[in-house]
Amino acid sequence: MTSALAESQANVTREFPSYPGLDDLPQMLNAEYDVIIIELDSNPEHALELVENICGSSSATVMVHSAQSDAELLVRCMRAGAREFLNAPVIPSTIAEALVRASVRRPLGRPGKRATGKLVVFTSAKGGSGVTTVASNFALTLARESGQSTVLIDLDLPLGNVAIDLGITTQFSTANAIESSDRLDSNLLATLLTKHRSGLSVLAAPDRYTSIDVSDQAVEKLLNIARQDFDYVVVDAGSTVGSMCKTLFRSANIVYLVTQVSISGLRNSNRIIAEFFSSPGGPEIEIVLNRFLPRSLGIDEENITKALTRPIHWKIPSDYIAARRAQNTATPLAMEDSPISQVIRQMARTACGLPATADKKKKFGLF
Fold this sequence. Notes:
- By secondary structure, the protein is of the alpha/beta class.
- It has two domains: about 1-105, Response regulator (Rossmann fold, 3-Layer(aba) Sandwich), CATH 3.40.50; about 120-350, 3-Layer(aba) Sandwich (Rossmann fold), CATH 3.40.50.300.
- The protein is built from 15 helices and eleven strands.
- Strand 9, helix 12 (about 265-275) and strand 10 form a beta-alpha-beta unit.
- It is elongated.
- Mean pLDDT is about 85; it is low at about 360-365.
């Protein structure tokens, strides 16, 4: 069976050298296996008990294999809930066909699995504030600093630019996920993602202008599945404010509101805060001043805080040369050392529970 699985290119998550006890099943099934294959011949009665208990408490497809061609045993396996009875020796084509049938029967969602990944949303109250640049470099840095699985989803539809900022070419997009929401699951989402060389997974916006009806239900399902599969889900929501933002803010662990020091930017940010973040018990919001220059337009920090009714958490300095170089070379700012990348690194480390600044290791020499 092991050889047949290997030749069929199936991904074997775990192999058990012996039958688990019935008391061990709940912990074992927490792994959310898609297919569980059980050998019958060593202890047929215990194996049948396992089949029945697994089928009663899991959505996994249970297959059994045996060297015996016993019609009575086959009937008992089917009654216990097994979906495939494989006779040994099993050939790769047989197991491959059985796995295809299992994938067809697989439920669209995993209702027993809770969304546990941390949701981080970047938004802006005014276009041109640089929210995509901040979000994409934050996600890349978060993946690197935390060492945990991270996905960046571009929901700045229909004209998101996450792929450009990261210098990647994508085959599929957020539009594909939204349009396929009725059959979206972990497997389908995995096929839509593009991997950045840093390890960050990306679901970018479409390359071309795509008119798409984005429903709250589709967005919520996409985020739930992403949070099941990743430790951190970073969303670039752009400057679009509407019902989708309510869905995002309601589920978010942190919302970064990116703005610049300008009358219109501060005014719009004030309106966003008043509308979505004035009630107690809502998501945590952190203010990010992008392209910050001290005394910009004669507005000091005290007046900025007064206008926003919130303290300023992060100030990303204005560094035109570094930003332009990153755009022209399709190299994310986070891949180089600059005043901008240093602040974004502090943001990412804080978000994943690390000290804002990493301790420098002392160097020791002979003298």
